[in-house]
TrEMBL record:
InterPro entries per record: 6-PGluconate_DH-like_C_sf, 6PGD_dom2, 6PGDH_NADP-bd, HIBADH-like_NADP-bd, HIBADH-related, HIBADH-related_NP60_sf, NAD(P)-bd_dom_sf
Keywords: NAD, Oxidoreductase
UniProt name for this protein: NAD(P)-dependent oxidoreductase
Lineage: Bacteria, Pseudomonadati, Thermodesulfobacteriota, Desulfuromonadia, Desulfuromonadales
Recorded superkingdom: Bacteria
Organism, scientific name: Trichloromonas acetexigens
This protein's record includes keyword Glycoprotein: no
Amino acid sequence: MVKDIGFIGLGTVGRHIAANLLKAHYKLTVYDTKSDAVSDLVKQGAKSAASPFEVAQNKDMLIVVLPEKEEVSAALNGKEGFMEGLKPGAILVDMGTHSLEATLDLAARSSAKGVQFLEAPIWGTKEHAISGLLTVLTGGDHTLLSRCREVFSHFALNIIHVGEVGAATRMKFVVNLVQSELMVALAEGLVLGEKLGFNAEKILEVLESGGVASPLFNAKGRSIARGDFSRNLALKYVYEGLMQAKEVADKSSLELPAANAVAKVYEKAVKAGRGEEDFSAVIKELG
């Protein structure tokens, strides 16, 4: 049974996953390069670690929630890296979305150390994380997932096994592609509708009443209508996820014309300095 958990990555989503694990009374030790995030979790009952090595040492499970492969590499490598701290038989859960090559490399290094590896990229926003409503896509051994499922249940509504290690990352590419395109489609609809004389509320009422209705349209459409672009999911990460999907498609000689057009909109937004804003802020680059 998992009781003692190490946790690396207290960003927009990670800090709320960690908070929910504390509420579930797990023994939790956290590490992040941002001291304010660590201090906040310590106030809630977590212990802090001085290095990735220390946060992994003697833990039943280590959860890593880092969005950039460079961040994972920095936390992984060297004498103070988390792989050195993990004991044989411990569980390593990678909840970031990286390149497929980086995921497979991490799995291989885990196996060589006798560490059990589960690929588990998360899907959702800050609000989903706070409410315990994230989706976790998992790749790896079914039995290992069974051991992790109870832990995940405290911050995830949907826990979906999609195949072997690597499958969850591949599926996340699909999610990233569709999510980024849906957001731009909604933004364009709102901009066009307003040009035609309708307010955002009326446009959303119509969209939500028919076949194009979706939770994303409801949540993001309402926040846009209020002029609320508070960050739940950073635009830069949505753009990076879309570019990962395009890279995979290019390697497969697959043409994605809609993705190519949408990527230009996100690129424009990032160049305009909107990367740290919520991804709904892409609408500011239209019209």
